[in-house]
Design a protein that fits this description.
The chain is of the alpha/beta class. The protein has helices at residues 20-28, 36-48, 54-67, 82-91, 104-116, 130-135, 153-160, 191-205; strands spanning 5-7, 13-15, 72-76, 96-101, 123-127, 141-146, 164-173, 210-215, 221-226.
Length: 227
């Protein structure tokens, strides 16, 4: 077994897309992003084992948003606002990040953190199922960001792709799913999620209206630009 494979439950193998030492090096270069609130949010995730995109992907999200001068972002699945922190920094004081999460406690926590970071005024946080929030929200978006339960990924793509402005982006986290998308005989209790992500990725890469690539950092981030 080489350095890029890690045993998990049963006989399954987890593939690590990027060597952890490389990711540690990349993280060491981020010397301008240690806002106390950001550190507090990351510590909460560590203590509660709460899934967040983490620092490397957060900086990537902010950079992508700034590159297209994004002002209107929709998040499918926002947790307690970690990814919204990065998008809110990018959209500026005249921009808006529409967040969605079914847990009201996550909204309360997001308000606390993002208010302390002077970003809450750029947030519209809706407590409901992400698909329902999106359906009742009008207009086009510069970015649609997907981080809901993985089984819903194909559905989210089908909803979002029609609501992205030309030159805008569709972004989704966890699209390599611990490497399971590349394993032919993946023995895993989350096989249904793996199948959904494989289908999600196939649909996007085969869509002629989008230019698409995958950044393999952490668990893989797909970025599709609408032509």
């Amino acid at each position: 077994m080489d350095d890029f494979q890690t045993p998990v439950s049963g006989d399954s193998i987890e593939l690590i897309p990027v060597n952890p030492e490389i990711e540690d090096y990349m993280r060491s270069l981020l010397t301008q992003t240690d806002h106390p609130i950001l550190v507090e949010m990351e510590e909460f995730a560590r203590l509660r084992n709460f899934p967040i995109v983490n620092r490397l992907v957060g900086v990537f999200l902010e950079t992508q948003a700034r590159m297209i001068n994004a002002k209107r972002v929709f998040e499918f699945g926002s947790g307690y606002g970690y990814s919204a922190y990065w998008f809110a920094r990018a959209v500026g004081a005249d921009g808006c990040v529409i967040c969605s999460d079914a847990d009201a406690t996550n909204r309360e926590r997001a308000e606390k953190y993002l208010s302390a970071a002077a970003l809450w005024q750029r947030i519209e946080f809706c407590v409901d199922r992400a698909q329902d929030v999106f359906a009742r929200t009008d207009g086009l978006f510069d970015i649609c960001y997907n981080d809901v339960d993985k089984g819903y990924y194909p559905e989210i793509w089908q909803m979002a792709k029609h609501r992205i402005r030309p030159g805008g982006l569709y972004i989704a986290d966890n699209v390599l799913w611990h490497g399971r998308v590349a394993m032919k005989n993946c023995q895993n209790v989350e096989y249904d999620s793996t199948e959904a992500i494989v289908e999600h990725n196939r649909l996007i890469f085969s869509d002629p209206d989008f230019d698409t690539f995958i950044n393999p950092t952490r668990d893989g981030v797909i970025v599709a630009r609408k032509k």
